[in-house]
Write a structure and sequence with these properties.
With 150 residues, the protein is mainly α. The protein has one helix and three strands. It is elongated and about 120 Å long. The chain starts with 23 loop residues before the first helix and ends with a strand.
């Protein structure tokens, strides 16, 4: 009876398999896969941003066109090129003016530039359009002009 039993305890290895982290190669593979996915998805997302700005410009042109029509019903003609779109918010001196015809200031196009307004226009009583992303006449894709008469 007097035998002492010595218990041997094992210390856990801090680097045992159950506590192992990712290796450098595994991390690099994951980063490469994420980079490839981003390269495939990002161009599609940027195309959506460009087309949404064009749709927003069309909607704003339509809204301004409605205000111009209301102005013409009251005054009898569209604002001249010298009066411009400001006449939709501030009376240019017409007695029949019953505005303002827009609840807020005339917005800039989605690219931050004023809309182009001409009266009389080449395509109707007035021309109202945006020059697109590049700010120049013509263009394709996102750079294409957004025309109010189309």
């Amino acid at each position: 009876m007097g035998e002492d039993v010595v218990k041997v305890t094992r210390r856990k290895n801090p680097f045992s398999i159950s506590q192992r982290g990712f290796t450098l190669i595994e991390l690099l593979i994951v980063m490469i896969i994420l980079g490839l996915l981003a390269a495939l998805v990002a161009p599609k997302m940027f195309q959506k941003v460009g087309s949404s700005k064009q749709k927003a410009a069309k909607a704003q042109i339509s809204m301004i066109g409605t205000a111009l029509d209301a102005y013409r019903l009251d005054v009898g003609s569209y604002p001249g090129a010298d009066e411009g779109l400001v006449a939709l918010r501030k009376n240019p001196g017409h007695g029949a003016w019953d505005g303002p015809y827009l609840t807020k200031e005339v917005p800039n196009d989605p690219w931050g530039r004023p809309y182009v307004y001409r009266s009389p226009g080449e395509h109707g009583d007035y021309d109202l359009y945006s020059l697109g992303a590049d700010g120049q006449e013509g263009g394709e894709g996102e750079n294409a002009d957004v025309l109010g008469w189309e």
